[in-house]
Specification:
Layout: H1 2-12, H2 15-59, H3 63-69, E1 71-76, E2 94-97, E3 104-106, H4 124-141, H5 147-153, H6 159-191, H7 201-228, H8 235-262, H9 268-292, H10 297-313, H11 315-341, H12 345-357, H13 361-388, E4 404-406, H14 415-441
Length: 444
């Protein structure tokens, strides 16, 4: 208790610390407000989107138009996104489902979307990542005041007790600051009318846990640098350098490497050309067959039905297999990125943020799969209406908001490994700090 009280006074009697904590709370409040505003704007966009798509179908006069133009599918954001507004792999995305062979997933830049730009760290999770890590590495460097102070304290108790009690007492209060910060922004979102459902909590809490461990990692680094630099003023130069490399340089190197690896994937254009050639070859064969029977209308209808079923069974599935081949390669690259990110906390923090937001790599893959399956169902619907039933009245394919894909928050499968790895890092750093301090104190 004495150490807890002492560290509490050391932390909160420091005007610089108090100002920084106030700054952190105010900045977090601002960016969570921005996140809430953007999410509310999305909900309004969703309502307009649904209304427009319903009206659009009513304008079609035949199924040829419906099949050619199709309908759009919107990626619905999760309310959890208010914490990760710009810490996502993608923003608002849409797709178009039709009877053509081009799978389109895109982000519209028309109208006000042109002015919606992602900015590094411009959200709650980014603020914690940037300023939280800087604050913690600085506070870690100050946990042991000086070598002479330690020698004075050691006249009353042993080194192990002083070191570990001082370190964990300071960590306790610092962690409390960030726990209160999370509670503050969480209840603020509730007050502002964002419905964070019960099913969102299993994702928010793991994010909080990893965030605390991520911040503790930087605290441990700060305390180790202080000891390794023998309590000299140069400590803070090394502290800042390590922080800069971890927050900016390593993530950028990783991003460039991942981009270069992604260039090895087949291009959309290459796959689309193959798919288009398959479609054109089929249409050419079908046209030749129909021309032979052009003088017999009674024979053309059965041939149309036969060709449509043949296309669905063969050419369409061949083109789907090409999309799935691309998806498999994309999934392999994402798996590699996930596992390599485990090795360094700042990389894995970003990966966890992406996935828990619902707008990460696996969220994209889920949307990709959904569009492929929806296209298959729409083609079946089109063949039934166009060739088999020969319906004149346009009946909409979308009846229960099938054109809205609900984002799924995703907890990475490697999450527990990430927790274990960062905990091991912290234990190792604390151990090295202790033994190095002991050598310094008892060095003759």
């Amino acid at each position: 208790m004495r150490f807890l009280r002492y560290e509490f006074l050391r932390i909160f009697r420091d005007k610089k610390v108090n100002l920084f904590v106030i700054f952190l709370f105010v900045l977090s409040l601002y960016y969570i407000s921005v996140g809430i505003s953007e999410y509310m704007g999305f909900l309004n966009k969703k309502e307009n989107f649904i209304a427009y798509e319903k009206q659009k179908v009513k304008q079609y006069t035949n199924y040829t138009q419906y099949g050619g133009y199709g309908f759009r599918v919107l990626y619905e954001l999760s309310p959890v996104t208010v914490f990760f507004t710009n810490s996502t792999v993608f923003k608002d995305i849409e797709s178009n489902v039709d009877t053509l062979e081009i799978l389109k997933i895109y982000h519209s830049f028309k109208g006000k979307n042109l002015f919606t730009q992602k900015g590094s760290f411009k959200d709650f999770s980014g603020i914690v990542f940037l300023f939280g890590s800087l604050f913690m590495i600085y506070m870690g460097a100050g946990v042991i005041e000086s070598k002479n102070y330690m020698r004075f304290v050691l006249k009353q108790m042993d080194l192990k007790r002083v070191f570990f009690k001082a370190l964990f007492s300071r960590l306790f209060w610092l962690n409390m600051i960030f726990v209160l910060l999370f509670e503050f922004v969480y209840f603020f979102t509730l007050i502002k009318g964002i419905s964070l459902h019960v099913q969102n909590i299993p994702y928010i809490l793991p994010f909080l846990l990893y965030t605390l461990l991520f911040l503790n990692f930087f605290f441990c680094i700060g305390s180790l640098i202080k000891v390794l630099s023998k309590f000299e003023m140069i400590t803070y130069m090394w502290v800042f350098l390590f922080w800069f490399v971890s927050i900016f340089l390593i993530p950028e190197i990783n991003r460039v490497y991942l981009f270069n690896e992604s260039q090895k994937l087949p291009t959309n254009e290459k796959i689309n050309i193959k798919k288009l050639k398959t479609l054109m070859d089929f249409e050419k064969r079908g046209l030749e067959l129909l021309l032979k029977k052009k003088d017999s209308l009674t024979k053309i209808q059965p041939i149309n039905i036969k060709l449509a079923k043949e296309y669905r069974k063969n050419e369409f599935m061949l083109n789907v297999s090409r999309e799935m081949m691309l998806r498999k390669k994309l999934r392999n690259l994402i798996n590699y990125y996930e596992k390599s990110s485990l090795l360094y906390p700042s990389l894995y923090y970003s990966f966890v943020s992406h996935e828990i937001s619902g707008q990460g790599f696996y969220g994209y893959l889920g949307f990709y799969d959904y569009i492929i399956n929806l296209r298959r169902e729409f083609l079946e619907y089109y063949i039934q209406k166009m060739y088999i039933k020969r319906s004149q009245k346009i009946e909409p394919f979308v009846k229960h908001n099938e054109n809205i894909f609900g984002a799924k928050n995703h907890l990475p499968e490697t999450y527990l490994y990430g927790i274990l790895i960062i905990m091991c890092y912290c234990i190792i750093l604390i151990g090295i700090s202790y033994f190095r301090l002991r050598n310094l104190i008892y060095k003759k």
